[in-house]
Amino acid sequence: MTSPVLHCLRCGRAAAAGGTRFDGCRACAAEGIGVNTMPPLADLGGVDLAAYRGGPWGLPAALPVSGPPVTLGEGNTPVVRLRRDPEHAQEGRPVGELWLKYEGGNPTGSHKDRAMAVGLAAAVAAGADTVVAASSGNAGAAAAAYAARAGLRCVVFTNEAVPTGLRAQIDALGAERVVHRGTTAERNAEMARAVEERGWYPLTSYSSPSPGGNPYANEGYKSVAYELARDFSGRRIDTVVVPTSRADLLAGIGRGFRELTAAGLIAREPRLVAAEPAASAPYTAALRHPDRADQERTRVADGPTVAFSLGEERPCWQGLDALWRSSGTAMAVADDAIMAEYRRLATEGLIVEPSSAVGVAVARELVGGPDALVVAIGTATGMKGLGD
Amino acid sequence: MTSPVLHCLRCGRAAAAGGTRFDGCRACAAEGIGVNTMPPLADLGGVDLAAYRGGPWGLPAALPVSGPPVTLGEGNTPVVRLRRDPEHAQEGRPVGELWLKYEGGNPTGSHKDRAMAVGLAAAVAAGADTVVAASSGNAGAAAAAYAARAGLRCVVFTNEAVPTGLRAQIDALGAERVVHRGTTAERNAEMARAVEERGWYPLTSYSSPSPGGNPYANEGYKSVAYELARDFSGRRIDTVVVPTSRADLLAGIGRGFRELTAAGLIAREPRLVAAEPAASAPYTAALRHPDRADQERTRVADGPTVAFSLGEERPCWQGLDALWRSSGTAMAVADDAIMAEYRRLATEGLIVEPSSAVGVAVARELVGGPDALVVAIGTATGMKGLGD
Asked: Which of A305, A335, B106, B178 allows an S-S link to A279, with CB 3.0 to 4.6 Å?
């Protein structure tokens, strides 16, 4: 396999070619900014979206991996129209359409499957025998499943906060689960040693400030944009709301929409909105600064939240870039509002993870305004946590 | 809404028109045979399968419901090719392709969503305000979700064997869960009273011998056949293996393939195989009788099994009919083999309910023989049970 050269999205420096260390741009990290090194955008010219079957492997030419696919049937998740907000309707205000893209329909129950499918194909192509992920839950489960599928050994570093169902899922899939009781920095250091000394292939971030996840894996998220463009064919999506932590999903969706626009497959990119729990909201804090130099260097306290999948002290640069490019914004939601939205979605028949409710809560605000069509990404099923 | 007249599949007698009691053919029941009354098959002439978007509502004209859809994005589940059996390969025997259609990707995590989507649309069209289901798990969760989606009240009769995760799911979706401690006959009688006296709309069977589930709802299962025909376009599927209890899914898939064949959309119907846990295997027992009259009247002990979603004393007639029409068969799997297959699927990255492993275990036997392409239906995710 010939890997494309990775370049820093911010400063343009090339990463070491052909390596399997993915710790982002070290030059920008020295400035206190976490940013990923990525392959070039794909050229979607000539693609027929109506014939696109969904998922990362529905458009393999858009992926930076030339080896055989690793797949469990990820992607092609449903978009469900949510009920309109009766309060807004009563007030006679214009009310747009609110849709949920339900990523809980993926094989292991979260959007992470899109990334891990591609990440494991990249690991196989790189000749890895062991993959490693640091995760509080869904990414670990997805890494475990796709490693099993690919026949590779998988080690997952978790902490003690992982919900029972997720822990059991990782174990059932045969991954080695290491419960790390130290700080994030200590966990990162241990993972870095495993990558450096043992040659384990990293599927998630392990440096600080975090540059975001494995660049190859992250390209799997572009398929969310492709599917939305296909499913809303001919209609303009005003806004896509993405629950955001390290912005792997947000940045991936942004890249997908840029590829679609460049190829003329959609007229213009939707506005992207990062949705965060108020307890841990670096993007919301960053965008309060007028100056981008300050935005890039924002640091907040990362407090506990019911949206346990989310939480980060600093914005990953490519997340900010996705918001800047699309004239987007970031909005934070308090824990009580997150749980109110969780319960409200249950009254519509949907059990999502609280992190998904963060996105819907933000999206509900937006459809009360001028936005005619808003899609919230529901990142994960809530079924895993129900036994707790 | 004009409901189509329902006819007994076995004797052809018409059911009472326009009613909302669905207790099968009473004349056949008097002979000791449980059989459903169903609408006519749909005419799929002129359908372009390549453009079919999946799920029951992807072909609304094939459904006996003319009201607005009730949907959470059900259907369009992935088909995943499983690894070939190394033992068979080593022996130099021909080894076919084994695929899993993973119904755990549905919104509530099981194939039941296909039925409940249509069943709730039928309930709304019938003017119901309350729906009722008797279920040990997945059907109850699906009924609860789609009732919530439709804005109808939902009552679920369960027993004490329901796993924690499923129980929590039903509760979180706002259904009223009634834990019934009596016999199945007593539970049926209570549900029949609710249907008769309170006008609750029944989504599952409540008479004995069981005729199978709500006829309108069951038509949702035809979409499994449509999706398989689309996804294996141009290739012949030799056999479809279906985990079977009351045969709602088996019979629905059979009806779908018959419609496809009649419209010339596939060359011939695949052979259907009912997969059962050995502890509760009425179809396997029935097909040991040479005479169909004896097959119809088979009764077996319904013992406990790890495949908790399965289990029935008697075959529902339409299940036998599906096997007869497709020159199919039934095969039983012991609990230790079910759990071995469950673990084996986990090593491929898939966590399914033990009931789904029943189908795959049977399918593995078949791909060692002359069958070139076998699809096993994986009926439900195993994620719900992991917290137990």
From this structure: A305
